[in-house]
Specification:
The protein is of the alpha+beta class. It is about 35% helix and about 35% strand. The chain contains 4 helices and 9 strands.
Length: about 150
């Protein structure tokens, strides 16, 4: 099934250990969907919470659609996420653990036109974990550079 990614939360993989992911639908209005199709969204500071048996997405910025004819909505408004009850119950159990957060990893469209958000169960990294990850990434880059140069000669 093809999917067209609108935006990714690259910072999440740097700041958190992602322990699991799940896919959720979003309740959007028409101009928000058009704005997402144009790629005008930012999920960097976003997070999700379970309230009253429902999951809501906070701090996700979807820019107002330029050509909308009626009054635009707040770009940072709270958006309801669509999940099955059993998924929400599992989430509630996981979120009661200490240090677990629910953050958006990416927003994308499926081939049938539905907008989805990929949520990650995340545990915060310590500073030394972040440093180790950066060193590892840098050494991998250097290794790839060396193998590429050997292949060219």
């Amino acid at each position: 099934m093809g999917k067209r990614v609108v935006c990714r939360n690259k910072k999440a993989f740097h700041d958190y250990h992602i322990e699991g992911t799940l896919e959720a639908g979003m309740v959007l209005n028409g101009p928000e969907v058009k704005s997402l199709r144009a790629g005008r969204a930012n999920i960097k500071d976003g997070y999700a919470k379970v309230e009253n048996g429902q999951v809501y997405l906070y701090n996700v910025h979807i820019s107002p659609y330029v050509y909308a004819t009626h009054n635009p909505t707040d770009p940072l408004r709270t958006r309801k996420l669509l999940l099955h009850k059993r998924e929400i119950r599992k989430l509630i159990g996981k979120l009661h653990e200490k240090g677990i957060a629910l953050i958006p990893l990416s927003v994308y469209f499926l081939s049938n036109g539905k907008a989805k958000v990929e949520l990650g169960l995340a545990r915060g990294k310590k500073l030394y974990d972040k440093r180790a990850a950066l060193k590892e990434k840098q050494s991998d880059r250097e290794l790839q550079r060396e193998t590429r140069q050997k292949g060219d000669t």
